[in-house]
């Protein structure tokens, strides 16, 4: 959920990785999984669906 919240704040993968002290590759994997689970076409769509469903 941290990655999703940071996506909603407008952070990119590199920024999220730095804030969470992990690799950018890890963030990319998490973003991909979040988008797949939410059935989202892109990052903005994932954030919109997360807000709509009360996840963030």
Short overview:
With 56 residues, the protein is mainly alpha-helical. It contains four helices and no strands.
Task: Give the full name of the CATH homologous superfamily.
Answer: Winged helix-like DNA-binding domain superfamily/Winged helix DNA-binding domain
**Biggest beta-sheet profile:** none
How many domains make up the coordinates? 1
**CATH fold field value:** Arc Repressor Mutant, subunit A
Tell me what portion of residues adopts beta-strand conformation: under 5%
Radius of gyration: 10 Å
What is the tally of helical segments? 4
Overall outline = globular
Extract low-pLDDT stretches: none
Q: What is the C-level CATH assignment?
A: Mainly Alpha
Helix content percent band: over 70%
- Overall pLDDT: 96
SSE succession: HHHH
Q: Give the strand tally.
A: 0
Architecture in CATH? Orthogonal Bundle
What class do helices, strands and sheet pairing give? mainly alpha
Distance between the termini: 8 Å
